[in-house]
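Exercise 7. Given the encoded structure of a 428-residue chain, write a plausible sequence.
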């Protein structure tokens, strides 16, 4: 089916002097044609289950190979929701979440910018044809060589949270535009970052004073409420704390003009909190505390890509285990595991839920454990869950597998680190 195209004017933030390849405006909210051509994106009207069946039954496919269905229209849908609900906030996509070039190119064409944390990530964005002014180097602790590289390619917006980092920047890149990252309350988040990054609020004034002494250009404040944040109030409190730092900076002689709301934005509406609830809660707070000449950005990752990926896996082995009198349970082995896409179980505290492809009328379920393909006993995807009895060769699938999955996959034990990927665009 043809994808309905909606047009919207996107206002870019003038974070630095205009350069080539800045975000275009207006843009059409659709998967860009160059992505469609390069990645073979198929326009579909089928359901995800129908697409899986089609790929499984394709005579040219490897019938034991795991694969992804990536719906780039979901990425577009998320971008549209973002600019509708947070029109003042420019998203800088955190590519660490999923650096898939089709997703990067789709978001870049829509007008999103990029959050990079290393030389290699910066190189990917520049190599994709985007200007250095569309990158924030959002790692508060950076290797000196990476700072020098950022300087050499014109990436001048970067974060810091301690005096040692200020000294390093003063020596390597004194012309950089600096953003002070502060500690926030991340007690309501699944992955907490304040144990590693962020200046305590009782140290921000002394850090700003030190930056002034070194002649450095501090332009703003950033925070990160933690990945998988479950509290709208955490965002609100962080914004209010940032406002206090803005006032401190004014006393020292800085006129800050950038607020970075960081990450922690949910990727689906099933995570215990929704993006719309956060956006509607913080939007009036931002407008009340920060005048229109203050640029507002954020660093969403999972928000854009979590729901775009569905992973289909094959049950290639099975064991039956006696379980009590006349009872039984099953061990299933699938062709993707915690060293590949399911590393999210360890690194992202995720609990993927397997769905049975073509469940038919099987209503009786059994306790079972699902393992990945490696010889490591820790390669366990789900333990003691209920599923109908499956036969070797059947398929399971997992939705919402786009965030922090393939990004950290490895070829451990000789197994393929990233499954075959099929790209589609649907009417979502």
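Solution.
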């Amino acid at each position: 089916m043809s994808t309905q195209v909606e047009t919207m004017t996107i206002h870019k933030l003038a974070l630095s002097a205009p350069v080539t390849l800045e975000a275009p405006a207006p843009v059409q909210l659709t998967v860009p044609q160059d992505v469609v051509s390069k990645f073979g994106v198929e326009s579909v009207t089928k359901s995800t289950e129908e697409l899986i069946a089609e790929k499984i039954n394709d005579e040219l496919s490897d019938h034991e190979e795991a694969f992804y269905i990536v719906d780039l229209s979901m990425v577009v849908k998320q971008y549209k929701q973002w600019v509708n609900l947070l029109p003042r906030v420019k998203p800088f996509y955190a590519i660490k979440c999923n650096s898939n070039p089709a997703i990067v190119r789709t978001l870049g064409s829509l007008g999103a910018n990029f959050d990079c944390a290393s030389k290699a990530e910066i190189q990917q964005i520049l190599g994709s044809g985007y200007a250095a002014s569309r990158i924030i180097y959002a790692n508060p602790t950076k290797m000196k060589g990476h700072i020098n590289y950022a300087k050499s390619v014109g990436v001048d917006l970067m974060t810091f949270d301690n005096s040692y980092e200020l000294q390093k920047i003063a020596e390597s890149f004194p012309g950089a535009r600096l953003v002070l990252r502060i500690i926030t309350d991340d007690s309501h988040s699944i992955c907490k970052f304040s144990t590693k990054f962020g200046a305590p609020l009782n140290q921000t004034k002394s850090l700003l004073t030190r930056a002034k002494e070194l002649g450095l250009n501090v332009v703003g404040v950033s925070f990160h409420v933690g990945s998988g944040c479950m509290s709208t109030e955490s965002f609100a409190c962080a914004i209010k704390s940032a406002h206090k730092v803005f006032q401190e900076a004014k006393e020292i002689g800085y006129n800050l003009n950038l607020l970075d709301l960081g990450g922690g934005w949910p990727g689906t509406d099933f995570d215990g909190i929704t993006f719309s609830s956060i956006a509607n809660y913080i939007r009036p707070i931002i407008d009340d505390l920060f005048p229109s000449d203050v640029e507002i950005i954020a660093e969403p990752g999972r928000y854009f890509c979590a729901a775009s990926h569905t992973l289909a896996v094959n049950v290639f082995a099975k064991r039956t285990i006696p379980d009590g009198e006349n009872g039984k349970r099953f061990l299933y082995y699938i062709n993707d595991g915690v060293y590949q896409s399911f590393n999210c179980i360890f690194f992202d505290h995720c609990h993927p839920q397997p769905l049975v492809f073509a469940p038919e009328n099987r209503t009786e379920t059994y306790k079972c454990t699902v393992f990945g393909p490696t010889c490591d006993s820790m390669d366990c995807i789900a333990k003691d869950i209920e599923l109908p009895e499956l036969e070797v060769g059947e398929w399971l699938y997992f939705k919402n597998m786009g965030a922090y999955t393939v990004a950290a996959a490895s070829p451990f034990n000789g197994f393929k680190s990233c499954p075959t990927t099929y790209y589609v665009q649907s009417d979502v």
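Remark. Confidence is low (pLDDT under 50) at residues 1-27. Students should compare their own answers with the one above.
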